[in-house]
Write a structure and sequence with these properties.
12 helices; 2 domains; endopeptidase fold (from Nostoc punctiforme)
Length: about 350
């Protein structure tokens, strides 16, 4: 028993470290593996067996350092540091086994992985209570997450000139409806009126576009995120009554339920399919000029700010951060945002950013 805990610590902790590196560098590792196979199990003139021995040597070195660091951090109150180090780390592991990928996934192959100390969503219960107290029908919701690969790409889809190649922050947008009732069902296209996964009544509902298409969702479900902001139209900037604008936007969103998702994020004219931002843009089409809202040139700059010439996916479209930019210009008001988003914006104070700042969980 004396040596069991350091052995377990070395065996599992060191192997998990290798697993984590594999996950992090999976694209590079996959290319390396294919190159090695093409070159007859050698790479850069080095045989695969030599690479294997080198990697095993690194693993042994890491294990030795791990044991040494744990031993040096022992204390009188912790007589068996290897046991406490292993069990405290082991208790942070959470396994995920996904048997039901999203509806739009063509090959629904199961997948699983381990995560060390997964953090809950930063937006917590107290934040949601504050949002419920301040949100009103017609408000625009922006949210973002940590860790999602598509979110990282969306953030890198910068406005070419206005943002000076700076990445964005929010990755999804929605329009808050307030209460949806049975009377609203009549405005939904007939094919989706009885589809609960696209339309269902509720006291706090929103409409947004995701992979399966335009659909409604409960506000609290939407709020489960890492970053969140609530934006509101300013009555003094609108050419008509605020209530009429909100009612028009609400009706437009209901009529588009069931429309397909715009994976290209490039349809800001025909409105036959929608990305999340394009849907909100469409619903507010009567007041584009008053909001100073228009499609802008966006592109993916993987090497920015060092590369200011080459880019990928150049297109004219709308992204979630374009709505937040209207807060800076003063045509929208930020009535609530999570603490981290507020701190990020406070580094460069701009007009219109004095909304309530929630406490991130």
């Amino acid at each position: 028993m004396k040596y069991m805990w350091p052995v377990l610590l070395v065996a599992f902790r060191a192997l998990y470290f290798v697993y984590s590196l594999w996950c992090l560098f999976f694209p590079v590792a996959a290319l390396w593996l294919m190159a090695a196979l093409v070159q007859g199990h050698s790479l850069l003139g080095v045989e695969a067996s030599q690479w294997t021995r080198a990697l095993l040597a690194l693993l042994v070195a890491f294990a030795a350092i791990l044991v040494a660091l744990v031993y040096l951090r022992r204390s009188p109150a912790d007589p068996n540091p290897f046991q406490s180090a292993f069990l405290s780390w082991f208790g942070t592991l959470r396994g995920f086994w996904n048997r039901h990928p999203g509806d739009m996934v063509k090959f629904k192959l199961p997948s699983g992985f381990l995560v060390e100390n997964p953090q809950a969503y930063r937006v917590g219960g107290r934040d949601m209570q504050e949002v419920l107290q301040h949100i009103e029908p017609g408000d625009i919701l922006l949210r973002g997450f940590d860790g999602y690969v598509d979110g990282m790409l969306i953030r890198r889809a910068s406005v070419c000139s206005e943002k000076d190649f700076q990445p964005g922050w929010f990755t999804h947008a929605a329009l808050y409806m307030g209460a949806l009732t049975e009377q609203d069902r009549a405005a939904v296209p007939a094919a989706f009126q009885q589809r609960e996964d696209f339309f269902q009544p509720g006291p706090q509902m929103l409409i947004h576009a995701m992979a399966k298409g335009v659909h409604c969702q409960d506000l609290l479900t939407f709020c489960r995120s890492d970053y969140l902001a609530v934006l509101r139209l300013r009555p003094q900037t609108l050419p008509q009554d605020m209530g009429a604008v909100i009612q028009g936007a609400r009706l437009s969103a209901l009529q588009k339920i069931g429309d397909s998702y715009d994976f290209d994020a490039s349809d800001t004219k025909t409105f036959s399919r929608f990305s999340c931002s394009e849907l909100v843009f469409y619903c507010l089409r009567e007041i584009h000029e008053a909001l100073q809202l228009k499609p802008l040139p966006h592109a993916l700059f993987p090497l920015s700010p060092f590369n200011t010439t080459w880019c990928l996916l150049r297109r004219v479209t709308i992204v979630p951060d374009d709505f937040y930019a209207l807060v800076r210009s003063g045509t929208l008001e930020c009535v609530w945002q999570d603490r981290i988003s507020a701190q990020r914006q406070s580094r460069s104070p701009q007009p219109g950013l004095r909304g309530r700042q929630g406490q991130a969980a």
